[in-house]
Amino acid sequence: MRQLNKSFFLFSVVFLVSCTQLGLEKPDTTPQRFAYAITAITNIREQTVQLLSNKRIEVQDARKVQDLADIARLGIEKAIDLYFSKTNSDKPGALRMLESAEMAIMEATDFIQKVQKRP
After folding, report:
1. CATH number given to 27-117
2. Could you tell me if 44 and 105 are in contact, meaning their C-beta atoms sit under 8 angstroms apart?
């Protein structure tokens, strides 16, 4: 349990730093976290297309980034459904799904940043 708390804390710090790097205020509520995550996915997709158009990323790498974005989007959609369901709400489960989606977003964002730093 202690390892899980450390991992969650580290992830939270990295996530908040990423919000700051993107110029976004830290999301305070769960609905804001949903909105931020969807915005981040859109940003990931746009940056990937731009990198591919400029031939700064290989097609297979771009596909991997897009796959991460797809996974994150699916997780967010399921999390939103669970969180706001009138009949079968599972807020803790929704938050776990959101956290998993945020991790996929972080992985894709980190990869894009590494590609952008290449000469």
Report:
1. 1.20.5
2. yes
The SS3 of residue 28 is coil
The pLDDT assigned to 27 comes to: 83
Q: Return d(Cα 78, Cα 98) in angstroms, integer.
A: 9
Q: What does the alpha-carbon distance between residue 100 and residue 104 come to, in Å, rounded to a whole number?
A: 7
DSSP code for 86: S
Alpha-carbon span 59 to 63, nearest angstrom? 6
Residue 51 · residue 116 · CB < 8 Å: yes
Q: Domain residues of the chain, as ranges?
A: 27-117
Distance in angstroms (rounded) separating the CA atoms of residues 37 and 27: 10
99 within 8 A of 83, measured Cβ to Cβ: no
What's the pTM?
A: 0.77
